[in-house]
Amino acid sequence: IRKMWIIVAIICAALAALLYKYVFRTSGPNPFDIDTREPLKPLVTQKKEKNKVLKQGFLASKVPEKLDAIVIGSGIGGLGVAVLLAKVGKRVLVLEQHDRAGGCCHTFTEKGFEFDVGIHYIGDLLEHKPFRCMLDQLTNGQLQWEPLDNPFDQVVLGPPGNRRTYPIYSGRNRFPDELKKLFPGEEAAIDEYMRLVKVWCSGHNIWFLGLLKLIPVPLAKFLVYTGLANRLSFFFRMASRSVTEVVNELTKNNDLRVIFSYIFGTYGNMPKDASFSMHSLMVCHYLTGAWYPIGGASEIAYHMIPIVEKAGGAVLVRAPVNRILFNDNKEAIGVSVMKGQEEIHVHAPMVISNAGIFNTYQQLLPKELQDMPAIQKQLGMMKNGAGGLSIFLGLTGTKEDLGLKADNYWIFTEHNMDELVETYLKGNREESAKSVPILFVGSPSAKDPTWEERSPGTETRLVLVSFANYEWFEEWKDDKVTNRGTDYKELKQIFCDSILEVVMSVFPKITRDKVEFIEAGTPITNTHYIGAPKGEIYGADHGTARFSAECNATVRPQTPLKNLYLTGQDVFVCGFAGALAGALTCGSVILNRNLHLDAIALAKKTKRVDTKKLK
């Protein structure tokens, strides 16, 4: 028995040493070595000037020589890893299929109204915290953030005759304290909910989520198959528990159950299918507040691209990659870009895909590599996320005229969310379009303090987001995007009309005569503009299966093919912060150092320096 315990102790010591090595590895170059923030420059409001950065079209003559890496896709996951590599002197080419850079961070203008397509609010941006420090470094301190009002969310439940509105406040203490005022007698349930959320998304648990993707595959498999990963991380141990399961155990109050669950709209799974572990990450993300980029979402890419260019790289648009190139040893050596009917080959010793796991493995690999068991195993662990539906509304009047504030509204037709969403998604498309059960409403105009300066006049924008089945629209996917036929337009109009009725009932100052512009973006719109294979807006599905230890250890930045890496939402979790975490994890693997720890170290350093300056 004594010998057995000695062997166990030796194994544990060796395991601890290996984990320590990969947690604290620092052999590679550090993109966060120095504080690169620069004095704030004036906001550029001229679209022509911004487009010189955001809309640089692909030409073979513009491809830099002696590339170190090619990144497919210019969303935050792609740009993020490109900037990290550029900061250590790597020459990176980012290729974007759309006509402007940014992915879900891009904006578009119709009839004078500028709309954001994916950035509605971001959490965890307190000064000198690691996430804020990382963003400051990735934009050289030029990207500024405006806090939303507090309460930052309003949850609206029920039909007009029985409508209840619940304000959601930020603040680790204020959030639960305000809930207790709204739900007297539910103090114990609220306290237990907060305890669970904080345990699930504690620093230790999140670090282990990233660690499984950084350590070598054999070590990760050992931790998974011995059960140690679940024992060491509460996140994995409880990942199979759904939001509905946990919340229903806490309270019988149906409205409070909605308040505990409402933020599922930020990752796209019904509460009964969503992992409470993942859900806790989203709740924690907004506990310290919510912010919006000053100048609009396009500011993000606008301030990242020059850093890539300064290192000798480029970000080129209208550059659809149709396949990844490999040598006879199954090593990635570049990509093929379609320019009209011509294929242009661009070579680099490394290819990083921000196109998502399904596009990368099912569209960009040759058939013989798609069929590799290791590739098929990863695909078998993931499934496509929910299709996104967006309504873009241009209104006459100021935000004050229309009763809009710097906050968001989450509108539910009633408290039985699982049943309502399931019935909606399984229903006939024309009937479902008349009764959308969940709706997000936000006004970029009200959130951005520079809106009136950038768009003088009395126009205001609203962006409305919900979900819709890709299959409802699939028959029109191959039609020209600007001419998909009468039936398609009529279906979109049904959605627009029913959703507008909901908006007008919640915001009585918004009336039909104030509507100057309305347009719907369907799942096939998402496929066209952001390359989402099934119209999803949050990447791969965020159900309970995705957050098992095995799935997290298997789907990682390193692919089974040498010199091919994944970045973005599908590597970590969805959303702006999740995609950036995917970029940081990918950069850590490529540069052979833990960039998460480097960002924390620089955050502490900049706080000390800034505090001294204030004194």
From TrEMBL:
UniProt superkingdom: Eukaryota
Keyword annotations of the record: Endoplasmic reticulum, FAD, Flavoprotein, Lipid metabolism, Membrane, NAD, NADP, Oxidoreductase, Signal
Catalytically driven reaction(s): all-trans-13,14-dihydroretinol + A = all-trans-retinol + AH2
Molecular functions per Gene Ontology: all-trans-retinol 13,14-reductase activity
Keyword Iron: no
Pfam families noted in UniProt: NAD_binding_8
GO cellular component: endoplasmic reticulum membrane
Cellular localisation: Endoplasmic reticulum membrane
Cofactor(s) needed by this chain: NADP(+); FAD; NAD(+)
Enzyme Commission code: 1.3.99.23
EC class name: oxidoreductase
Family of this protein: Belongs to the carotenoid/retinoid oxidoreductase family. CrtISO subfamily.
Protein name (database record): All-trans-retinol 13,14-reductase
